[in-house]
Amino acid sequence: YGVTQPLSLAKPTPEQEQQSEALEAYLRDTDFFETEAEGERREAVLGRLNVVVREFVREVARRKGLPPDIVRMTTGKIFTFGSYRLGVHSRGADIDTLCVAPQHVTRDDFFTVLPELLAQRAAVSKLTMVPDAYVPVMNLEWDGICLDLLFARIPTATTVPDSFSLVDSTGLLGQLDEKCVLSVNGSRTTDEILRLVPSVPVFHTALRAIKVWAKERGLYG
């Protein structure tokens, strides 16, 4: 049936705006969502992970004997998805992440070379691999923040720059194997949700309210 049309496009009444403000105040008081400082800590961890992923892509290129100019220019990229990407993650929640790599990097490299590099970081702990899962995943904890890391290889790309988009890439899914399609679906779906909602702040408030409602009734998770 496609995308459901809105029930109403009418602007909120003054009374409804007051109710929205009261709801947002209540959500802030629940202590269910993290503080600004905690959010900045998460961003810092993701930045460090992105650095390691770039190093990983170049290290694989070196080990496979690619020309030095290719090694210098090739890189990978981290995407986030799920509640973190939507902006409604609860305090202490995992961050769902996706490592996107160019053609010379395989899933075997992801589960062998990348863990070697991560293990060199003192802040990284609880590193586990589940390569045989329906969606292969690596779990780790970095500076106390839990991350679930998936992998996707772009078979036609020699590099995955910061400008690379999983949404706008024409014919992207046709290039990928089944496991990679499953891996990128989370990020593509999350970005599509944010693109479709008419007001992201209103969406955030609604979804946060549903999360708190579900947690208080023992339904969350």
Strand-helix topology:
Layout: H1 14-29, H2 36-63, H3 68-73, E1 77-81, H4 82-86, E2 95-101, H5 107-119, E3 124-130, E4 137-142, E5 145-153, H6 172-175, H7 178-196, H8 200-216
Parallel strand pairs: 2-5
Antiparallel strand pairs: 1-2, 3-4, 4-5
Helix pairs in contact: 1-8, 2-5
- Report strand %: 15-25%
How does the helix and strand content classify structurally? alpha+beta
Structural shape: globular
Order of SSEs: HHHEHEHEEEHHH
What is the tally of helical segments? 8
What does this structure look like?
With 221 residues, the protein is an alpha+beta fold. The chain is 49% helix and 15% strand. The protein contains 8 helices and 5 strands, in the order H-H-H-E-H-E-H-E-E-E-H-H-H. The protein has helices at residues 14-29, 36-63, 68-73, 82-86, 107-119, 172-175, 178-196, 200-216, and strands at 77-81, 95-101, 124-130, 137-142, 145-153. The protein has a 5-stranded mixed sheet, with helices on both faces. A hairpin with a 6-residue loop joins strand 3 and strand 4. The mean pLDDT is 91.
